[in-house]
Design a protein that fits this description.
Blueprint: H1 2-61, H2 68-75
Amino acid sequence: QMLEISVFELRSTVTELEKRLSSVEDEGNEWKTRYETQVELNKQLERQIIILQEKMELIRGNPADKLSIVRTFDQMPV
């Protein structure tokens, strides 16, 4: 009878450990997915930054833009 109780307890322990193992594996997969998603988002944001920087350079260097008059006026001597 003591052996049967011991075997029952061991089986329960094994079952509980298997449940924990599967939940840990799922958590690892979730973190991997989150990481990959964040990396992709970072790449997209870096591309947007580059595009916006290029647009700023075009606006600064283009004398036909609407702000060129203001810049010219500001640069005039008193």
